Amino acid sequence: EQLGIYGWIPSQMLDDQAPYRDEWTIPVLLWDLQDTSLLLLDRFHQAVSFPEMVLAVQSRAGAATVDFSCNDDMVTLDAADASRATLAALLQTGWGVSATHEHFSGKKNKMEVNYLWSVAPTPFGPFGSTARLTFALIDAARRNVVFSSLNASIAQVSSIMGQFDKFGKHMEDVLLPGEHQHFVRRWNVLKFKIRRTSTYLSLLNFNTALFYARSLRHDV
Known about the structure:
Mean pLDDT: 82
Strand order of the largest sheet: 1-3-2
Strand content: 15-25%
Low-confidence stretches: 1-9
Radius of gyration: 22 Å
Helix content: 25-40%
Order of helices and strands: EEEEEHEEHHHH
Number of helices: 5
């Protein structure tokens, strides 16, 4: 709304039901320049992902070399077509899919880069050759939608429980016997739905997993 784009609201203004929305709008700001020189964002990227938008740039430089090589051959990119890089940035902004050449090292506690995993049909990185999505990327995107809904409900539960911790109390200390019994019933339903979500995720049944993940909000 601040950018005059219908359906788009900055993430810090989203309500608690944002993870459960069926659709949302991601602004893509593309600069299509007539300049014949190579222009990249941060010197390396045709498109960059941000939490609320995607920025992209393309020019008339044609096939331009970048700071990478493969089998002693220089790697080039089409400066006039930023569609592949834009798709990759959209996957990161909208679905939280990380680049195929990036992985988090628990041992080093930081992100590591290995372009070996991007020398393939992938929209990520300078070595990718297509805008088509592999099943691994599609599964990652669908899985992250489930995780987003699941995380939102669990965060709400954690926040509620944290209110009692401020006073050094537990849920059992403040509820009447009848209220506690009702709480236990709802808690068991909550745990059941989380287990079902996990089960269907393991079976790659993302639609059913999302159904259970989103139904958690009725028990929070």
